Structures are given as structure tokens and as C-alpha cells.
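[retry 2/3] Subtilisin-like protease: previous attempt timed out, resubmitting with same input.
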Amino acid sequence: MGGEGDIMVSLKFLALLLYVNVVACIAAKQAIYLVLMEGEPAAFHRSSPPREDARTFNQNSEVYKAHAKHLVDSHDQLLVGTLETGSYKRLYSFKHIVNGFAVHTTASQARKLKDAPGVKLMERDRGAKLMTTYTPQFLGIPGVWTQEGGDRNAGEGIVIGFVDTGINPFHPSFAYDPTNTFSSNISGFSGACETGPRFPANSCNGKIVSARYFAAGAKATATLNSSVDFLSPFDAVGHGSHVASTAAGNTGVPVIVNGFFYGRASGMAPRARIAVYKAVYPTVGTLTDVLSAIDQATQDGVDILTLSVGPDEPPEDTLTFLNMFDIFMLFARRAGVFVVQAAGNHGPDPSSVLSYSPWAIGVAASGTDRTYPSSLLLGNGQKVGGVGLSGPTFGDGLFLYKLVLAKDSIKINGTFPRTPQYIEECQYPEALDHNIVQGSVVICTFSAGFLNETSTLTAIINTARTLGFMGFLLVANPTYGDFVAEPIPFSVPGIMIPSVADAQVILQYYEHQTERDKRGFVTKFNASAAIGDGRVASFKRQSPTVSRFSSRGPDFIDINKSPADVLKPDILAPGHQIWAAWSPMSASNPILMGYDFALLSGTSMATPHIAGIAALIKQHNPLWTPSLIASAISTTATKYNINGELIMAEGYDVGSFYPSTPFDFGAGLVSPNRAVDPGLAFSSGKRYEDFISFMCSLPNVDPDRIRTATGESCNHSLSHPANLNLPSVTVSAVAGTQLVHRTVNNVGLRPETYLCSVLPPNGTTVNVYPPWFSIASQGTQDLDIQINVTKAMRHFTFGEIVMTGSLNHIVRIPLSVLPNSTSS
Ligand SMILES: *[C@@H]1O[C@H](CO)[C@@H](O)[C@H](O)[C@H]1NC(C)=O
Ligand SMILES: *[C@@H]1O[C@H](CO)[C@@H](O)[C@H](O)[C@H]1NC(C)=O
Ligand SMILES: *[C@@H]1O[C@H](CO)[C@@H](O)[C@H](O)[C@H]1NC(C)=O
Ligand SMILES: *[C@@H]1O[C@H](CO)[C@@H](O)[C@H](O)[C@H]1NC(C)=O
Ligand SMILES: *[C@@H]1O[C@H](CO)[C@@H](O)[C@H](O)[C@H]1NC(C)=O
Ligand SMILES: *[C@@H]1O[C@H](CO)[C@@H](O)[C@H](O)[C@H]1NC(C)=O
Ligand SMILES: *[C@@H]1O[C@H](CO)[C@@H](O)[C@H](O)[C@H]1NC(C)=O
Ligand SMILES: *[C@@H]1O[C@H](CO)[C@@H](O)[C@H](O)[C@H]1NC(C)=O
Ligand SMILES: *[C@@H]1O[C@H](CO)[C@@H](O)[C@H](O)[C@H]1NC(C)=O
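[retry 2/3] Subtilisin-like protease: success.
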């Protein structure tokens, strides 16, 4: 079974909510063009070259304000002088970390702009898509909370910015606790509280320190619906609230859905402050609004930026590293912001990552060890497993009810509007005979309507309520194969049976018990069934595993997928079936309407785990740069599951697994307890310049393209792109031998002696020089890694270098190598 053959129910999209659906362009021939201009943006203007650890600009200074105004004026002058009056609308000027603007106009006008003086680069807006009672325990976070003085202080003083669908400000996860006031000031942060529909001024309550919304792109691209597309930071979707509460939601918030208590939710860094940048709307999401949000968040001074949104496809006509989204992330990082992004939900295909650049942390998603098994009891005593967060049928799932196949309850005489597929899918109550189905457990069958997203679970639940089903089943159909089901809270007893084999057990039993006349009409229903409680968590021993949907490496430099010498994804965090805050309006997912919490899956859900953990590290080590934080997260990650075995990755076939490689999980599953004290770190005092040198060293790259995108000349290039000082080594083609250079710093408080050991990738020998070293606190050590090919291979192979310290620090970096030939 190939990936393309797999069936997704509409509910999978909901679950993988990754990226809320986005429309690119509606008005005829008009589109949004993103334009980069010559000349320094305000943040990097005339200041000494900014260091990664410091926000060196002062946005209140006269120089800053004057320069920002000058840039805006220059954008207007250019537009007035180049385009026909009335043919365009400038949506934004970017002036803080990037000098440029977004303009809504026709393709022919845009062509004029492309050649105008001062214009460096132009890109069409590709759209932007959206991509825990339990997870804190799973990751061992409470230990970190203890070190931070208890969970009442975890993340204190750190501001995390969220570019997403907004926030539900009155959710308990974001409540301000007057008995536990924030003790420290947040230095260097200055936000704003933009109010509007459903977002009154008291929404910014001290926990939420700032909230803004960006809608110029959305307004230009689509007709917004004022009953869902609120022009305020209010979250009508739920996604933004989910992401924010996963990173920084209050601790100990009870999760209650349909009256059932599932446990207590807590963010990774429950005392971190939240800055909201709403940029995606139920109707539309544009890259323009996302980029404006990134520019503003950096100007406001967030410590960490969480991007569970972004373009859902690789850029077509540029280096992956040099598309607008990655350029903005580069400059946010240059200004000292730690940028985390979702790796994407296009797994398990190789090279399906949507995170490309070494300056942003791309997060892959894993399941936790918690599942919600649900079961169906048949009249003959057989039990069949399934999925669905619902209570049992009346009688605690033991008392049996008449079992009826929806197709056998069609009103002979009735008028029903749709084809038989919709009837077996239980989409229309008027099609089924009330007398037959009332009080029964009804079997609905997966069919074409689900395949093409016409049919919904919401409609089944509506049918069940209208006709008084005791419960419903949604069973797999051999014609379409197994489907992917995610647990969703059902307000009536229900269970999904996603496996064809299981569905056949049920249907065989049903046919055996049911009497039919010659024409096939049922004369006697005699099968019976009961649905068990699906809301009780169970804990499996194989976890975590890399989720099937999580996008995979290798990273690539262009649309031809030429591999890059950078590891992606970077890190693995829980992203499958995560409980977190929701917005009851649930404008994009009617099935979750009315709920305050939702159980969601996607790399969107994994990303805020890393953002929260970065906040804990930053709180513990306030002077650490983004590079140090990223290094600490990577070198302390584990590749083992809770049984001490290699973490497995889910393959194409539902339920199939293979041993993970770094292209599935990066450095491995994040280990927050160890990440606050990593021992060594791969760092650099001039990381921004290093990123430029890295790009300049890419094979066949035109230095002009780099200068055009970044404003930097290729003064220096690395001798090989793999020499960028990352906490991983990836070499996409080794011919004979390759020497790779790394530098480590001792970020511990004491001198330590490290011993290096190597697990060479198949087809290679690897030596590290020196094989051991002693390093003073704050000291530096150069490492040479010599990779020799012993056997040529056509694919990547994997190994690792482990440095074991005398004070028990263990520093691990993954090796991913393509041993192309034995001779150079
Ligand atoms: C916070 O800042 C205010 C004004 O700058 C200052 O008066 C106060 O002492 C600071 N509080 C803390 C805990 O640093
Ligand atoms: C606007 O949204 C509401 C609520 O979802 C919906 O009922 C209505 O049909 C929408 N209007 C348009 C024009 O799409
Ligand atoms: C069947 O339909 C006919 C014509 O619409 C109607 O007269 C008759 O009462 C219906 N019978 C039942 C059992 O609903
Ligand atoms: C979905 O499938 C049904 C049944 O085959 C068909 O009638 C309907 O037109 C399809 N809808 C779309 C949007 O493709
Ligand atoms: C109905 O089912 C019961 C229990 O499964 C069985 O004992 C009985 O013989 C069945 N009756 C008919 C008429 O098949
Ligand atoms: C390249 O050289 C110019 C001029 O010496 C300097 O201003 C710039 O910072 C250098 N760029 C990099 C990336 O080192
Ligand atoms: C390396 O090669 C050996 C023998 O061919 C094989 O058993 C092993 O699985 C390979 N290891 C990896 C990590 O590919
Ligand atoms: C790797 O190759 C280099 C260059 O050919 C050689 O100097 C070195 O000794 C080799 N190392 C090993 C471990 O074979
Ligand atoms: C890989 O090796 C083949 C022949 O062994 C050679 O033709 C090709 O250019 C090499 N590729 C790279 C990227 O070095």
C-alpha cells in the first residue's frame, strides 16, 4: 500500500489540524506579492553587528523611529513611481527585521515592480496553513519544575510569541492567578493589547502580556465572514489556544469534556508569558500576515517564537533556505529570537519536511504512551477494538442492544436526497426508518463521502441524536481499506472500527444473526451489541514512536530535492493525541464545537512542547543564545523509548513500524531534565555570519542570490557546508574521505574531561580527533571528524558521536552520511 492509497477521513484532517486550510487567491488575477528592498531594516541599522544574545536595538530611539519612517516613505515612493494609480494596495511595510513590503496587485503590475530600482527579491504569497494532562509527566518535566522552584515558577520571566489563530483569552489555561503574581519584570519586551470583537481590554491579564492581529493579507485575499473571522486577537478556531496552552498554559487545569474528567492539563512552562500574534483566520491564512507577525514579534522582543503555521509546500523557484518565510526566520534569529517551527505533516514520505534552515528548529511529532482504547461487545461474546472518546451505551457497555446495519433501515417509502453511499454513511436522518433504529446500535459504513470529505462524523452524530440511536459504529469498508481514526469526543456513544478485518468480524456476526427474505429485506434483527467506555486512558509499553504523519528528512536545498548537509527534522516531541485548550466556537471543526479542550495531533502540537522547554532552559540560563539552547535540546535528546529500545517510526501501512533514523526524529526525543545542563554546547559568537557562510558554501550556488536575499556578500564561505557548527553532522555525498570540523564550549560550571566514542555509519569509518580532551569551564575545544568511505552506498546511513564527561554529562550528535564512493 502506498501513501497515496491511504484513506483519510475528514476527521483526520481535523486531528492533523496541522495547518488550517488556506486559500491562495480569490479576486481575479490579483495576488499578494512580497517584496524585499535594498537597505538595512531598522533593527540592524547603524548598530554594531547585533549579537545573537542581545536585543541591541532600541525601538524607542529617535534614530530607530526616523529610519523606520524613512523606509515606509521609500516603499510608498517606489509604488507611486512604478505602478499605475489605483492598481494596487500596499498591505504592509516590513521595516523592523526586513526592509520590504507586501502589495496586492495584478501580475502585470507586479512584473514592473520586479525590475524597479531597489527591489531585490519578489515572491508571490503562497498562503499559510496551520500545522496535556499527560505529556509533562511523559517527558519528565516535573523534575525540571522542581529545579525551577516548583511548577509555580517554571518559565518565569520568559515571553513566548505565538503566530497562529489567536487565543481564547478567558480559558482557565490562560487565567491570571492573583495569589501567585509574577515576580520578575520581563525586560526588553514591549507589546500591545489590540482589542476588538470578543477580545476586551482585560483579555491581556498579565499571563497574556500582549495580543495583536494581522489581517491585511486575509482581507485582500478573501471575503471575510464577520461571524468567524474576527478582527481581533480572539481565536475562533481553537488551534492557537491549543498551541499556546501546550507551551505556556497554567498548571493543573482540569480537562472536562462532555462531563467526563480526563485529568489535568499543564503547559511545559506554565509561568511563561504569552504574546499572541493572530495571523490565520477560519476563512483564509496568508503568508503576508504571518510575516508581518514575525516582524512585529521580533520588534516586541519575544524570547521564543512558535510557528505551528507556514507554507505547506516547498518553494518552487528558489533555494529552500531563501524563500521569504525562511528569510524572515533568519532575521528573527539574528535579532536574538529562538525560532521553533513545525516540521510538517507529510510523512512518512522521505524529504517531506517543511523546515529547511539551520536557523529554525524543526519539530517532529511522536505519540505518547497513552492511548484511548475503545471496544465493542457483540452478542456472541466477541470483543472488537476501536477508537472513540465516548461513554458506554446505557448499562455500562454490558447490556446488549439490537444491532442494525444502516443500509437495512432505509425507509422503503421515504424520500431521501442522496445516493446510497450517503445512506450507509448515516449522513441523513430522513433516510433511515425511525422505528428500526431508535434505541439500536447502528452500523454506519465508511464510503466515498468520507473519502472525498463530503461526509462527516458530525452528521452521523446528528443522525444518531435525531433518531435516538443507542449508539453508532463507523466501520471500515473493504473497498477502501483501513482508515486512520483519531479519538474524538462523541456526545453520543459511538466507536470507529478503522480496520477492515475487525469490521468483517462484526458484519459476519451480523449477517449470521439476521434473517432476510428472498429480496434481501430483513425480516428479523437478532444481532446485538454494546459499546464500551472509550474515555479511559491505557498506557502502552512501546512508546514513544514517531507518528506516521510527521514529515521526514533528508533536508533538501531546492525543488529537485537535492539533499542538504543539514539535519531535519531537528528534534522529536509529543504531537499525537495531545489534550490542550480549545475555543468552543471551533469555527473550522464543527465536531469540536462547544468544547473547552481538544485532543489533537500534528507537528503543530509538537512544536509548542519545544517552545516551552526552550523557555525553561532560558530561565535557567538567562544569557544563553538561541544556538546554545538549540544545542542543549539536541545533544541531550534520547533515541530510546521507555523500554530502553530504539524508538520506532510508523511506516506507510497503518500500524507498521521500522527503526527510526535521524531523518525521522532528528537528534531524538527531547529530554528536558537533561537539556538544562548539557555540559558541552556547539555554539558560535557570530552565528548570523556563519549562516551566510554556510549558504555561500552550498554547491552551485550563485552568491548574487544570497546577496539579493540577505544583503550579505559571500566574503567567506565554509570549506564545506557540513562545517556549520551544528549539534549534528550531515554529509550528503562523501567521495573517499571528508573532514568535518566542530567546536564545542564547556557551558558547565566546572572543568570536565570528555571521552569521544563513535558509532560509524555503515559503509564508513569515522575518527574523532582528539579522542579525549579536558576542557575548562567556558573553555573551547576544536574537534576534527574524519569520515572515510569503505563501501559505496546509494542511500544515507547513520551513526553517532558520543562524548562522555567525567561529571556524567553525555553529549550525543547524530551522523547522517551518504557514502557515495570509496575514492575522491
Ligand atoms: C519591575 O520594574 C519596575 C519599573 O521599572 C520596578 O519599579 C520594579 O522594581 C521591577 N520589579 C522587579 C521584581 O524587578
Ligand atoms: C459565516 O459563518 C457562519 C458561522 O459559521 C455561517 O453560518 C455562515 O454561513 C457564514 N457565512 C458565509 C457567507 O459564509
Ligand atoms: C408510502 O407513500 C405513499 C405515497 O407517498 C403514501 O400514500 C403511503 O402512506 C406511504 N406509506 C408508508 C408506509 O409510509
Ligand atoms: C463525493 O462522493 C460522492 C459519492 O461518490 C459523490 O456523489 C459526490 O459528488 C462526491 N463529492 C465530491 C465533492 O467529490
Ligand atoms: C437470536 O440470537 C440468540 C442469541 O444470539 C439465539 O439464541 C437465537 O437462536 C437467535 N434467534 C434466531 C431466530 O436466530
Ligand atoms: C562582508 O564584508 C563586508 C565588508 O567588509 C562586511 O560589512 C560584512 O559584514 C561581511 N559579511 C559577512 C557575512 O561576513
Ligand atoms: C549495517 O549493516 C549491517 C550488515 O549489512 C546491517 O545488519 C545493519 O542493520 C546495518 N545498520 C544500519 C544502521 O543500517
Ligand atoms: C581516512 O582517509 C585519509 C585520507 O585518505 C587517511 O589519511 C586516513 O588515515 C584515513 N583514516 C582511516 C581511519 O582510515
Ligand atoms: C557519486 O558517485 C558517482 C559515481 O560513483 C559520481 O558519478 C557522482 O558524481 C557522485 N556524486 C556526488 C554528489 O559526489
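[retry 2/3] Subtilisin-like protease: Residues 1-28, 145-149 have pLDDT under 50 and may be disordered.
[retry 2/3] clearing retry counter.
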